[in-house]
Prior knowledge:
Layout: E1 3-8, H1 18-31, E2 38-44, H2 47-54, E3 59-62, E4 80-83, E5 97-102, H3 106-110, H4 118-129, E6 132-135, H5 138-147, E7 154-157, E8 184-188, H6 197-203, E9 211-215, H7 221-232, E10 239-243, H8 247-256, E11 259-262, H9 271-278, E12 283-286, H10 291-295, E13 300-302, H11 307-323, H12 325-338, H13 341-356
Amino acid sequence: MNNKILLESHNLNNLATGLGTFNFELIKAISKQDIDDLNLVLNIGNISKYKKVFGEKFKYKQYFTFERYPIFYTRNKYDLWHSLNQNIKLEPYHPTKYILTVHDVNFFEEISNDYNHKRNKLFLEKIDRADKIVYISEFAKQQTHQYFDIKGKEESVIYNGNPVLELLDTQSVSSPFLKDNKPFFFSLGDFIERKNFAAIVKMMSHIDDFNLIIAGNNSKKYGQEVKDLIAERKLENKVFLTGKISNAEKQFYLKNCAAFLFPSIREGFGLPPIEAMRFGKPVFLSTLTSLPEIGGDAAYYWENFDELDMKEKVMESLNQFENNKTQMTNKLQERGLFFNWEKAAQEYLKLYREVLNR
Length: 358
């Protein structure tokens, strides 16, 4: 009988987030591989929806929120359990081989550095349980070692792939945010403080020839802070917040923007920059956390968040880009394509087999 492997994948329900995208793209890539020797089970909330997407290569287990409590942990037995991110509360009831994927440990910096805090205790329990820890970047590995004792566990780094696998037809997409025939900068992400959108809004106070469009769920507290900042700086006719957008709309903005801006201060990986690179667009990043590792020498970097310094960096770099457009576009696209979900899926499947065969 084939080995039974559970992929704890209920974050599929949150496709607007990086974790949801990771779940979806990795599982989709795995579904295209030869997995006849494995019995893969997806733990998800909407089975009928994702069965249409991933087909019969997987078996499906219904996810219930109450299973996050130890008394309700699933009694089903598995040969291998893959926890697809470090925040998942659901764990196996029975002992099993265990792989943990760590995207970041930002919670240690943002929530509490008390090791008795429930979030930190949960993570320490996962480390104890793990046979193998996988990080999505070298930075995520370094950050984890900075704050936690991983107790000699086996480790590896498997990079995420690029979510832009196919280029969509965007001819029918229109946007109410294209104003005055001006070129525009684009940014994308969930409106949480670490995304640091305020920095690029302030920068726009000093730029007259471009507009800025930021996409993502802005209904949270930080979204209101950014809206207040736009009003305070009187930038309502220059900076536009779209809210959530579709994949076609995202590709429309990436295809047509003058540059992609991503001033985030904490990223375990950072998918949006490599999406922009797929379109050969100039990408501006902070020098913090994983972003230099992901952007490599294809991206431009802000050394600080002084609004005038940021403007100067963007203007100088755009001139440099235009003077070497073909070479720079090719370099960006090559970097964007380096990150590949098929490669990631193959590495995870190899890991499953290695752990199971011990």
